[in-house]
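User: My collaborator sent over this chain with a note saying "see what the structure looks like." That's all I know about it. Can you take a look?
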Amino acid sequence: MKLHRNEKFFKWGLTAFLAFVACALFWIVFSNLSGFYDLIMKFFGIISPILYGCLFAYFMNPVMKVTMKLMRKLLDKRKKPMKEKTAERLCTSVSVVVSVIVFLLAICALLPLVGQALYNSVAELLPKLEGYYLTIVEKLNGLKLDVEVADWLYEVIESILSSLQTWLSELDVWSLLGDVTSSVTSVVVGIFNAIVGIIAAVYILVYKKKLCSQAKKITIALFTTSHANRIFEVSRRTNRIFGDYVIGKLIDALLVGVITYIVMLILGMPYAPLISVIIAVTNIIPFFGPFLGAIPSTLLLLIDKPINAVYFVIFVIILQMIDGYIIENRILGEKLGISDFWVLTSILIFGGIFGFGGMLLGVPVFAVIYSLISDGIDRRLAKKRYPLATDQYYTLQCVEDLPVDPAPNYSFASMEPGYDMNVETEEEYEEDDEA
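Assistant: Without extra context I'll predict from the sequence alone. Here is the result:
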């Protein structure tokens, strides 16, 4: 007797089995979340030089493209043309060397400049800490506070001082030496990873065409044509979102830091280098960044001279208005395709999970996820021949009120963010730049 397999029930059973396995794996992972998290962090620690290399290569790639464009123009002017392979190798070698030199010069120029300024500000601040403490105590004594409030403030200050004295008295030299050793080891490992990352970035830049070709080759071999095209489109979209956002945010933070430094020098405020660096670094974080940088800076100026703190708060408010409405819009524009509400949501979610790094990169990651979800929703609506414009759904009472499109026209690209789906090669980018 020959048994015939029912394809329909077989697919249902296979789906149920895979769903059960996925749920079991999900439960195993999250029931041992701390160990799983430590394993992931250990893995990322091992491949951190490669990750540094990808990051460095991402920043060096624009310089490499510009250098290759100039080199090709110079080689085209030669009376005796070179062989195509020789010219390509020469352009690649020179452009990689130039991009690495520019990257290293930028680091060597910024680190001593910022480091020296920070050292001078901290060296100026440390001798004044005791005087600042006495000033705070004097101000508290001069205030006419309620007895309970005053007692509570004195108890808080005394507890902090007693805790500090206890920590200093119980300080173990060997444990301190171990902490210093581990800190030095971390610094050495970080420097080593950065050096290896620069070397990896060189290899990535030299073989980027081959690596990209291999990735596309594997994708086409493993997936169907429609899925491969979808992966290519999402990869281009992700690259553009991250590139525009990261580079734009860094330029914006640099401009804000420079403006803060210049204005503080003009107004004669102390700790200008230290505060300008704090404002620049925290300005990279969307939404919360300006407040995170302004609060400690204002407190520092308030202790030194209260009127400077008032001027600084007014300046920061004006600067953030100019940055939000003019500078940042000119640099970033509407490239993310998400509203401020989703920016806030992405910062809270990714910042709570991944900390400071999540606050920095959570917004572009969420923008990519948002665009993919928007694609799926629009594709389903297009199959049902319903409109894709979101505004038409606000006053909707029932589904029958929606107009039905006679001939829907929809591609993989999301309608609202408006990302470009055209595949552009490096030569096409160069032609656009020349135009």
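A starting point for your reply to your collaborator: DSSP finds 15 helices and no strands in the chain.
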